[in-house]
Amino acid sequence: MKTTVVAWDRLDDIGLVRHLEAVASRRGLALGWVDASGGGVLPHHQHDDACDGRGCLGSVCTQLRDSADPWMVLSPHPSMREIAAPVTIGRSIVGALLVGGYAEGSLSEGEIGLLGELLVEAAREVAGSAAVPIENAAVADSAPTTAFGGIIGGAPSMQSLYATLARVARSESTVLIQGENGTGKELVARAIHQGSPRVDRPFVVTNCSAFNDNLLDSELFGHKRGAFTGAVSDKPGLFEIADTGTFFLDEIGDMSPTLQVKVLRVLQEGTFNRVGDTDTRKVDVRIIAATNRDLAAMVAAGQFREDLYYRIHVINLTLPPLRERVEDIPILAAYFLGKQRHGSRDKELSAGCLGKMIGYPWPGNVRELENEIERLVVLSGDDPRIDEDLLSARIRHHHAEPREEISLDPGSLPAAVESLERRMIVDALRRHRGNKTRASADLKVSRRNLIRLVQKYGLDDARS
Predict the structure, then answer these.
(1) I need a surface site. Which of 14, 397, 419, 431 has the fewest CB within 10 A?
(2) Is pTM beyond 0.85 here?
(3) In terms of C-beta distances under 8 Å and separation of at least 24 residues, what long-range contacts does 72-79 make, across chains too?
(4) Is domain 322-396 in CATH 1.10.8.60, yes or no?
(5) Domain ranges across the chain
(6) Cβ(238)–Cβ(196) under 8 Å?
């Protein structure tokens, strides 16, 4: 039978829970919890030992299961209230976190809302720290815990990342997250915010590649009425919305040089102007930036400002691609299966299906794996077992190609150069799935020159 373990007796090990407890304590409240079996400690038990604890705990679980709200206010006794948020793994409520007690006076609606939102984030953190259920025989019996909510993986590179995140989150430093698409850059940025002193302040996200230059300028910095056609009213930008909180700028490498100057000003002085406005505004924002591009190479090519690069490169985190932590594929697959439960029936991957997944290089990384699991769950219908014949063709038919060895003829320098050149082009095309524009940037040659070399060596089919 499959079980999920939450270390309820070690909640204090989770930074966000400690922060929630401190916020509650300042209001004369206490933190409590409920597990799936109805055991636990409610906040008011710390003041009322005569309470029928088991009955109260069972009532909390029942009310949470019947509610569609992310958090709710309970009234276990007259003149007191408790705020509760469910701890959910997959589609199952495995317990709850609560804040309440015999506080002097009444909480304002604003305080209740703040505590409710903090409870929801803390509950997610607790769920993320739980051991992931594993059924496949090829998977180890126990899974590693996550240091920050929602980040799954036990590979050495991930454990090293968790240790770094624990230190980075507590600082106010600007962070640059680098990694391929689908490696979870936004998830890491959110984890940094949740573990930071700004956790109860806004967390704002924008993708710099999703807008043209003019729209991104207005999106980031806002605009004054009449600044351009369609600007019918004043509009605050995302920097203002993120004030006192954290702003995650995804794909910052796609930002134009003009906007790079404005972002640099915010980093250096904390000031900016709305589009079409002469009034200078000031904000206090922690910036986390991310990109899948080589910013150092872009700086060398004059495509990215060097001064901005060093301002956002205070702390650099590089996320490993999934193909470099294949031991996490079974753990992630099991986790996504739990999220995609088909009705009340659990599903599992056959050994052959899991083996094919482990052998595939996952160019789309964790996002691609999650999408594949969702597809498999739908296609498998009511079958509890998912076999390899349901896998996408690209995964089912993939076979690892043996690495071509470079044979260097010591008596022929031109032949050795050609062999090395060919090998480097093949590797670049495979890394970028045949995309010649990205491969040429990686190799630091023009796209036209790369196409000429590809034709020269007959490498049109060279890709992963």
Answers:
(1) 397
(2) no
(3) 73/112, 73/116, 74/98, 74/100, 76/42, 76/44, 76/51, 76/100, 77/44, 77/48, 77/51
(4) yes
(5) 8-128, 156-318, 322-396, 413-457
(6) no
